[in-house]
Amino acid sequence: MSDEGAQPRSDGHERNDGPPGPAPSDRPHPESRRTTDGIRIDPVVEAEHDRRRAVVSALVEHEPGVLARVSGLVSRRQFNIESLTVGPTTVAGHARITMVVEETDPGVDQLKKQLRKLPVVIAAGEIAGETVSRELVLVKVRGDEPERVHAITEMYDGETIAADPQTITVELTGDESRVDAAIDAYRQFGIVEIARTGQTALARGDVPTTPGEAPAPGCEAARREASDQASRDTASGERQSEGNGPTDAGGDSPRTATTERTGRTEKHGQPPAE
Length: 274
What we know:
Number of helices: 7
Pathway: Amino-acid biosynthesis; L-isoleucine biosynthesis; L-isoleucine from 2-oxobutanoate: step 1/4; Amino-acid biosynthesis; L-valine biosynthesis; L-valine from pyruvate: step 1/4
Protein name: Acetolactate synthase, small subunit
GO molecular function, one term: acetolactate synthase regulator activity
Distance between the termini: 64 Å
Largest sheet: 5 strands, antiparallel
Oligomer: single chain
Keywords: Amino-acid biosynthesis, Branched-chain amino acid biosynthesis
CATH topology of one domain: Alpha-Beta Plaits
Family: Belongs to the acetolactate synthase small subunit family.
């Protein structure tokens, strides 16, 4: 190959092949981190923010593989999930996934946006306002002091579900703080094993638990709240698009995500946001 027209590179060597342009070392590189799968992490999410605990509810199609798709999204995007529960709802073919996350505000927003992009997700959002939350725990302790174990169980409104000379297994339900306190009380006897279900939650009153979820027939207040929440989500996405550019970490514009979400809402018989 002829050396005619060869151009010097920034490191002093000549480039003899390839089209004209900057050397690889001179090309700009995104400063944000990437996950182990090569997915770029949004620098806005990566910036220093205070973490907070949030409860995110997702209404999904109740079909095989749904939980794997949601958990795969959580794993790829490296969201910090404290607990996850799933179960059917009153609507045939629908299931509710409840996630407790320890994330920054941008992280919570990013999780909601990414969930809404999944075709199996009907609606997703943070449970706002007053909620009712519970979780169940099974605690197996040593059986050396059955009377004292029984006293602690009664104090926390629990139930002994199995007992033998070696161990005692009790069942308790309550909010997270009550379950944590009960576990601490059992430590004096020697805890052998613990199994916790994770937190599940519902919004109080006639407000839908999942923003955008279709309310029960006749629930006008819930229907208005669902419509208002969808409008707020759309407005928030448009403002973020104007302030942060046309794309988010997933590569789609907030407006596109909103349009896709509206399309899914229409598909499942719910009115789109005005």
